[in-house]
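Dear Dr. K.,

Following up on our conversation at the group meeting, I've run the structure prediction for 4-hydroxy-3-methylbut-2-enyl diphosphate reductase from Amycolatopsis cynarae. I'm pasting the input sequence below exactly as I used it, so you can double-check it against your construct before we proceed with anything downstream. Let me know if the numbering doesn't match what you have in your notebook.
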Amino acid sequence: MNGVVCAPMYLEAAAVRVPGLRVLHTGMGPRRAAESARRFGGDTAVLVAGVAGGLTGRVRPGDLVVATEIDGPGGPVRLPSAHLLAGALRRLGLTVHTGPIASSDTLVEGADRARLAVGGALAVDMESAQFAGVPGPLAVVRAIVDTPDRPLWRPGTVLRGIAGLRSLHAAAPVLREWCEATGSGEVLLASPRSFCAGVDRAIEIVERALQRYGAPVYVRRQIVHNVHVVRRLEGLGAVFVQEIEDVPPGATTVLAAHGVAPSVRQAAAAKELQVIDATCPLVTKVHNEVRRYSARGDTVFLIGHADHEEVEGTVGEAPGQVVVVEDAAAAAHVQPRDPGKVAYAMQTTLAVDEAEEIATVLRERFPAMQAPRRDDICYATTNRQRAVRAVAGEADLVLVVGSANSSNSKRLVEVARRQGAPAHLVDDVSEVDLRWLAGARRIGITAGASAPPHLVEELTRCLSGLGRTRVRDSQVADEDIRFTLPREVG
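The predicted structure tokens came back this morning:
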């Protein structure tokens, strides 16, 4: 797909002209903009760039506004790729706002500016509306020159205009990246994806605790490893702390889904906290295994990552008898106290193939080693890895939605890469690098078990604004598991 930047004025066109970017000087005003818009067919992506007037105190001269919608003949027209574009501009260090941009036939001042602001627009121009009907991908970026408290016809306009043009020039490399990222294609959605039963349960426990006991409800560590989930629960009144020592005596306290060592429960009892346990039942299963093995004197090899909260809690069940084994190389050299009395357990969020490789090395070295009755890696982790493996086999690029401290999300990236697909972990759409998308016709999307589904929906919607309008669901398993809630909130 061809991409072009349309700039109404010559100075605006000059500001955004960089090597590799096609820039069209369209002329100022609605009539000339309409004439230019009629030139473009569905194989052309159009980005309108220039200066504009600010409508609220939120925007200042030199700021950029990326339009989430513009005026169209039949009402507002949404521009789905806005948040992708805004994220890329912010990474350049620019001040960027997202919101509606209105259009007017003439320069807007005074009461007319206030009227447009009441409608929700952040800025006003004279051309964007004329491009609302272009058949290909469309984006609008405007640099603010004047604001309600700094009108156009006042001293300082020249300096403010220079500031706006400088911002446009700084933005030009990202405008080129947006053009290069556009193109027809499809999105492949891995399924299952996003929340699992354990995460749903943990979040519901905090929500119900807040409803029943009132805010604040204290939560030791992140309830699940996702910044969006934590931020939303904080807004409802949850207070996240690192350790039990940070909780006031007698307070209502939730233990996170990853599980805790017995010493944490003892500390909570000493402070007479009202404890609600949100540990995932599948993690509890691993704790039970470790207790059973250690009680008969076994050395327990715990396959997992030593710095993960789940592993820390599991080790705490028998600190002197649990040995963390992080990879196959470690498995080849680890030494138990008694080679005839060994067992193993696994962190629930590991990559299935890597965990099995480590377990195989241990089994070969210790034939009498005791194993769990069923694999410890949880069903949700297994299903999501199967699903991303299927998608990665077809995709030019895989995007995994999840936070950087989410073990199962990071494993999804690793699984996709082992299938040969470039893959990246992003917390949300704002972290997607436009350069990853250039030439990628099929884009696979999945999400870790702790990532909210709406983040996938937002990412899919943004990619549609770049031309990937076809969406195909690739489902490898159905999930209908639901865990019961603790009696304190049941």
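Two things stood out to me. The two ends are 54 Å apart (CA to CA). The chain has four domains: 2-181, 186-193+379-475, 197-281, 287-365.

Best regards,
J.T.
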